[in-house]
Amino acid sequence: MPSQAHAASAIQVHKVHYDSPGSDRGGNSSINGEYVELKNTSRSAIELRGYRIKDQSGHWYTFPSYRIGAGKTVKVHTGKGSTSAGHVYQGRGWYVWNNDKDTATLYKGSSWADSCAYNSTKVDYKMC
Question: Which one of 28, 57, 94, 117 is at 20 to 30 Å from 43 when CA atoms are compared?
Fold first, then answer.
């Protein structure tokens, strides 16, 4: 059962794809194979400017201007790329999400909005 704070957040962590396919050798396509997917569960578009995602090690990503449609998702890729519909990029040169356990925490400004923890090496992603 979701907590009241969880239920109140229209933007939720939907999926964490923490172990990109293949060997973790640091190529941009491999780094972009790990991402956090957020979902807008409301019936209205929401501006994500100022929303932030953090891992347990303290790596932060703050959204620039990005509008997510009602019921839509956006993948926050770790590596470099150009923002497009459903995709934004942190611009990092190395992996963020641990391949065994970590927590993706979403903040709206400085307030907690949602989180998703995983603790498994059996699969490469966690649906939240």
Answer: 117
Domain containing residue 76: CATH number: 2.60.40.1260
| Residues 112, 103: Cα–Cα separation, whole Å | 13
What is the model's pLDDT at position 2?
44
Report how far apart, in Å, the C-alpha atoms of 92 and of each of 50, 68, 78, 114 are.
Answer: 19, 22, 6, 23
Report which secondary-structure segment, H or E, holds 4: helix 4-8
Residue 119, number of CB atoms within 10 A of its CB: 10
User: Which range of residues forms the domain containing residue 122?
Assistant: 4-127
CA distance 22 to 111: 36
What digits encode the pLDDT tens for the residues 73-119?
Answer: 999 999 999 999 999 999 999 999 999 999 999 999 999 999 999 99
